[in-house]
């Protein structure tokens, strides 16, 4: 005689056993719990008065086993566990029946997704050490060390009409020794010698 036909000791039915060893039940409860990560779905449950059923409230309390470490590793949307904890409160269940509160929860969830990673990285990534302050000069240095050396003004480049300035001053030729006609660089003394040579040739 099978276990179904035998009511058991004391007339109590035997404990229920899943035919697939509970795998289908595990998947169904996992899917339902992760649906609670959507505020729109919670709003749907509230509008259809699921939260007024005491059996459904007990079912939500039973689903808290998903917060245990051996089950939480299967959760892909961790927000569902946050909303599952909030659904244990009657005030939150009643508030989610209003569209305004549903939009508020959805908007806060969006901002959390947007800024959570950056805020988290601020606490995870170590900050670089502060840069050392520049060392100050000792007070015992002489005053001349801090005075900058004056820079000599630039010397203009020589033009084509004037010869370059030669160091020593005495050996440099004066500009007055040149003939005033433009484009000639012949000294005045050489010009006079050339004219004297012409006169001597004529006299001869």
Automatic annotation (TrEMBL):
GO molecular function, one term: transcription coregulator activity
Keywords for the protein's UniProt record, in alphabetical order: Activator, Nucleus, Transcription, Transcription regulation
Ranges for region Disordered: 127-157, 176-204
GO terms under biological process: regulation of transcription by RNA polymerase II
Any Pfam family hit: Med31
Keyword Transcription regulation listed: yes
Biased composition (Low complexity): 136-149
Biased composition (Basic and acidic residues): 189-204
Coiled coil: none
Task of the protein: Component of the Mediator complex, a coactivator involved in the regulated transcription of nearly all RNA polymerase II-dependent genes. Mediator functions as a bridge to convey information from gene-specific regulatory proteins to the basal RNA polymerase II transcription machinery. Mediator is recruited to promoters by direct interactions with regulatory proteins and serves as a scaffold for the assembly of a functional preinitiation complex with RNA polymerase II and the general transcription factors.
Quaternary organization: Component of the Mediator complex.
Family recorded in the similarity comment: Belongs to the Mediator complex subunit 31 family.
Descriptive protein name: Mediator of RNA polymerase II transcription subunit 31
């Amino acid at each position: 005689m099978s276990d179904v036909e035998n009511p058991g000791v004391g007339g109590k039915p035997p404990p229920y056993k899943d035919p697939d060893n509970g795998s289908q039940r595990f998947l169904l409860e996992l899917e339902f719990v992760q649906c609670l990560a959507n505020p729109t779905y919670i709003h749907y449950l509230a509008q259809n008065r699921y939260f007024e059923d005491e059996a459904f409230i007990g079912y939500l309390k039973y689903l808290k086993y998903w917060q245990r470490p051996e089950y939480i590793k299967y959760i892909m949307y961790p927000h569902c566990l946050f909303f599952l904890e909030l659904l244990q409160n009657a005030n939150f269940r009643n508030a989610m029946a209003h569209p305004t509160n549903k939009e508020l929860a959805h908007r806060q969830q969006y901002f959390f997704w947007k800024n959570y990673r950056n805020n988290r990285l601020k606490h995870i990534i170590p900050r670089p050490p502060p840069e050392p302050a520049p060392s100050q000069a000792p007070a015992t240095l002489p005053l001349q060390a801090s005075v900058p050396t004056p820079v000599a003004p630039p010397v203009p480049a020589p033009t084509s009409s004037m010869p370059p300035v030669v160091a020593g001053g005495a050996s440099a030729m004066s500009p007055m020794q040149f003939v005033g006609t433009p484009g000639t660089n012949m000294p005045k003394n050489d010009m006079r010698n050339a004219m004297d040579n012409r006169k001597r040739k004529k006299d001869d």
